[in-house]
Amino acid sequence: MKKHVLKVLALVAISAFGAVAQEASKPKPDDHTPAVIPLRVQVVFSEYDGEKKVANLPYTFTVNADERRARPGSLIRNGVRIPVITAKDQFTYVDIGTNVDCSATLQEDGRYKLQMALERSSISSETSTSGGSGTPVIRQFRVDLNPVLKDGQTIENVASTDPLTGHVHHVSVTLNVLK
After folding, report:
1. Residues 172, 43: contact at Cβ < 8 Å?
2. 41 versus 30: which is more confidently predicted?
3. Cβ contact 48:70 at 8 Å
4. Nearest-10 Cα torsion for 63, 168, 123, 132
5. Fewest beta carbons less than 10 Å away: which of 29, 41, 147, 170?
6. Is 61 inside any structural domain?
């Protein structure tokens, strides 16, 4: 009986040692590995004719940030596809609307760097006669931004004047950390 108890104890000891060795070989989480931080970002496109605001288009979305690199971010595609005649009895579709691409990186000072590509297009009231009668003129506004913001901060990054209408386009960005 004593022999049997010793064998059982030996097996338990070997199993325990194996479990400890196996536990030691598991990779431990790095204390410096950042958690993903969810952010709420609002982008507002505003258009002014002199002092009069003629358009205000807000877009709000979430994007995740970490301290090492920008992860694949958030994309917004909002608009319509319109047919545009390219030749007799032939046409292609053109996207009209707003595109927002955004990713975020946590900076060492606790602020967040956003990498943003913004695009807004619309059909102008003017028409072109070069492509045939009544061919639409597509207005387009594109900008790449890399603002660095702290929690709760709003900045106006862009003020751009449309060369045809004289309208001034503004873009503001607001960042909030989600808790």
Report:
1. yes
2. 41
3. no
4. -140
5. 29
6. yes
- Of 101, 37, 102, nearest in space to 67 by CA: 37
What one-character-per-residue DSSP string does 34-52 give?
Answer: PPPEEEEEEEEEEEEETTE
Residue 21 is assigned to a structural domain of this protein: no
155 inside domain: yes
Structural domain for 108, as ranges:
37-177
Looking at residue 84, its amino acid is V
**H or E segment and range at residue 104:** strand 90-106
Number of domains in the chain: 1
pLDDT exceeds 50 at position 125:
yes
pLDDT of res. 133: 58
pLDDT mean over 102-124: 92
**Taken in order 43, 47, 53, 55, is the CA torsion positive or negative?**
negative
Closest-CA residue to 50 (of 145, 132, 168) = 168
Q: pTM to 2 decimals?
A: 0.72
**pLDDT digits 0-9 by tens, 81-91:** 988 888 888 88
Q: If you write DSSP's letter for every residue of 107-142 in order, what string do you get?
A: -TTS-EEEEEEEEEEEEEEEEESTTSTTEEEEEEEE
Q: Would you tell me how many other CB atoms lie within 10 Å of the CB of residue 133?
A: 8
Using alpha carbons, select from 156, 65, 153 the residue that is nearest to residue 107.
65
Strands 90-106 and 52-66: parallel
